[in-house]
Design goal:
Blueprint lengths: L11 H7 L11 H12 L21 H11 L8 H21 L7 E5 L2 H22 L9 E5 L4 H10 L2 E5 L9 H8 L5 E7 L11 H10 L3 E5 L24 E4 L1 H4 L7 E5 L2 H8 L31 H10 L1 H23 L4 E3 L7 E6 L4 H13 L8 E3 L2 E7 L7 H8 L4
Parallel strand pairs: 2-3, 2-4, 4-5, 5-6
Antiparallel strand pairs: 1-7, 6-7, 8-9, 9-11, 10-11
Helix pairs in contact: 3-11, 4-11, 5-6, 5-10, 7-8, 12-14
The structure holds pyridoxal-5'-phosphate.
Pyridoxal-5'-phosphate binds next to helix 5.
């Protein structure tokens, strides 16, 4: 659809009124179910790829990726093992290889596309802990009473969730003035901490797009033999943009990283690329064993199943691969440069506006700002009006207890005019 309709949300009561019950013993027939989806249900879903959807981290899949997702869904391809899905896995691995090369990872690096960044972070941290435990066991040392994971104050909420699932403690390191985790602050915390199996650096925080001190963190982690995982679910896409590549210096020393093609790499939901420097360590941590799986455990071939917390999987990296193969990597770099330029223009417009103020200087494509004089309820009323009037979807966020406005720009179709039109409503 061009233009994409923004649509809006509805309450459960409204949907119950207009749709009612759909699942019955007799079935309603495909025509009727499709009609309900087309005319009511799909219109009660906000389009994530609308150029004025600047919420959370939206998405902007290419038509090529979306069409290939349709083809993949209709193809009955199984993506869990090399035996069953060799062709699909081969192609997925080439897309992973492009990302590994952008990060400066060695030829032996590799990984898997998982459902999302949350599962990617969990899988990487499980590998980190298993690796630390194996190292202690090899040295005849006992495991610590509690394992610990260290991260910055603005790390994504999924790091805490992963730690809860693993029943490990999280040590949050005090940030620098830009909200970043630095090597020096990490070293101070590690001097007192025991049982640390991993440090999570964030390359592009969700709230601000801030990038932790990757070189400093890498140095400290290497000195202490601690696994360094880089959460770049949103931000690491910008490795593909020549103007931003240098912001991620230090990533090549990480043990693992994630980046979500469904965020800023123009693929549909749901795909997170999880890449390990030494995939054998992940395989040791994650491979499921059973008689019925033994036939898959051959030394030849690559079983995506073995590198994360999952077994059956769709070849969810293929829509991203197809679009990347079709358009070429240069187009990806250019599309990301476009969004970075629009974010810079948005920041400039805010700086030049008498009633608006940047909360922080943006580093990637997230712009957080306040409207002088507004309270939380003003932001909420403004945001609700924009959605209701089909102008934009820009929900406010909360920083340090203050409600503020936030743009996350990932679509190359978002223009400075879109930004100007939204800012003009903040009177
Ligand atoms: C979005 C995000 C995640 C979680 O990714 P999902 O795909 O939503 O599970 C993790 N880390 C960061 C920095 C993110 O922005």
């Amino acid at each position: 659809m061009d233009p994409v309709p923004l649509h809006g949300t509805r309450t459960a009561a409204e949907l119950a009124d207009s749709v009612g019950a759909t699942v019955s013993p007799e079935g309603m027939g495909g025509q009727r179910a499709l009609e309900l989806f087309d005319t009511i249900l799909s219109r009660a879903c906000i389009s994530v790829d609308h150029p004025r959807n600047l919420s959370f981290i939206p998405a902007a899949p290419t038509p090529a990726a979306v069409l290939f997702d349709l083809a993949l869904g209709a193809s009955s391809v199984y993506g869990g093992s090399w035996l069953e899905g060799a062709g699909a896995v081969y192609a997925e691995n080439q897309a992973l290889r492009w990302l590994a090369d952008l990060a400066g990872f060695p030829p032996a690096a590799g990984g898997v596309f998982v459902q999302g960044g949350t599962l990617g972070n969990l899988s990487a941290l499980v590998t980190a802990r298993a690796t630390a435990a194996a190292r202690l066991a090899a040295g005849g040392q006992a495991r610590p009473d509690r394992w610990r994971v260290v991260c910055g104050a603005e790390a994504h909420s999924s790091v805490a969730q992963a730690a809860a699932v693993m029943d490990v403690d999280v040590i949050v390191v005090p940030p620098d003035a830009g909200g970043r985790l630095t090597g020096d602050a990490l070293a101070r915390v590690l001097a007192e901490a025991h049982g640390v199996c991993a440090v999570v650096a964030t390359a592009g925080t969700t709230q601000f797009g801030a990038i932790d001190d990757l070189p400093g963190i890498a140095r400290v982690a290497r000195d202490r033999d601690i696994w360094m995982h880089v959460d770049g679910a949103y931000g690491l896409a910008a490795l593909a943009a020549p103007s931003a590549h240098g912001l991620f210096d230090g990533i090549s020393a990480a043990d693992s990283f994630i980046v979500d093609p469904h965020k800023w790499l123009f693929a549909p939901f749901d795909a997170c690329a999880l890449i390990y420097r030494e995939p054998a360590l992940a395989k040791a941590a994650h491979t499921q064993r059973a008689g019925y799986l033994e036939v898959l455990a051959t030394p030849e071939g690559w079983n995506p199943t073995d590198y994360a917390v999952h077994l059956s999987r769709r070849a969810r990296g293929l829509p991203f691969w197809f679009s990347l193969a079709a358009h070429g990597t240069r187009a990806y770099g250019q599309a990301i440069e476009t969004t970075l330029a629009v974010a810079a223009a948005a920041a400039e417009a805010i700086r030049g506006h008498g009633q608006l103020e940047l909360v922080r200087e943006p580093s990637l494509s997230v712009v957080v700002f306040r409207r002088l004089g507004w309270q939380a309820r003003d932001y909420h009323a403004w945001s609700e009006r924009l959605l209701k009037e089909n102008i934009a979807f820009v929900p406010p966020t909360v920083h340090d207890g203050e409600t503020v406005a936030r743009f996350a720009i990932v679509s190359p179709r978002t223009t400075p005019d879109d930004i100007a039109a939204i800012l003009a409503t903040m009177t």
